[in-house]
Amino acid sequence: MTIAIKILDTSLRDDFGFSHILWVYSGRRGVHCWVCDSRARKLSNEQRAAIADYFRVYKGGENALKKVSLAGPVLHPFLARSYMDVLKTFFEDRLLLNQQLFASEERCRKILDLIPDESVASEVHDKWQGNRRSSISKEDVNATRWEQLKMTLQSGKKAQGLRRCVEEIVFSYTYPRLDMEVSKHMNHLLKAPFCIHPKTGRVCVPIDPSNCDDFDPAAVPTLSQLLGELNATGFQTDPENNWERTSLGKSISFFRTSFLHPLLKACKEELESAYSAKLQQSKNSLDW
């Protein structure tokens, strides 16, 4: 979720010029992105599909070994920025060790299957087998094997067609999976902010993209927790302020100040601008 927010939020703002963007926790394992600029809300299904396809990297069926193919002599600027600013660092500094990507034969094989040249994959595997007979600790084996893989793929005559393979591996393990159909078509139902996930009971709270690294899904309040908090303090006569006394207070304040109020202001300015333009048009038609 952190990677998805960092990559897509930056691109939606910088590449497409959208500003009224709301990120909402799904209540379980995912995240939803609401783009509420006026011109975004007026997009057709075809235009929405074009934007969704701009972000699409994963292709192929569930059984396909290789789902990421980065064609062309250089990466698209969006992909290059995503790789250098987010994906590469996240993969090497966090995923390698946290998920032990090279710690077992099975996991190593999954990565080797992403190398299209079998002779190169076999060469890398032989080097990894040598690690098993060395004194490399379990903590270091992931980083060591990753460096050996990069060096083999990015150097030598055999690597002429494999330089992009390192980037493809990083993308395969880090780039967000988008729900293309929901993103493309307007007839899909969207999960609203602050509703309750039916299985986890967690509230679908907004996420601050500037602090998404600190977001903890396990700390999101549940419906039963909120009821307990309200019962403990007693319901007030003004129901509008009851939320201030619960663990949902900060989320609602963030929703109002960072998203709702700016959006309302933009909508008001758009209506006033359209009204002024209509008045000017009417005045011009009477000036004859």
Automatic annotation (TrEMBL):
Gene3D superfamilies from the UniProt entry: DNA primase, PRIM domain (3.90.920.10)
Gene name, Swiss-Prot/TrEMBL: LOC103631463
Source species taxonomy: Eukaryota, Viridiplantae, Streptophyta, Embryophyta, Tracheophyta
Database matches in Pfam families: DNA_primase_S
PANTHER family for this protein: DNA PRIMASE SMALL SUBUNIT (PTHR10536)
UniProt family annotation: Belongs to the eukaryotic-type primase small subunit family.
Single GO term (MF): DNA-directed RNA polymerase activity
Protein name: DNA primase small subunit
GO annotation, biological process: DNA replication, synthesis of primer
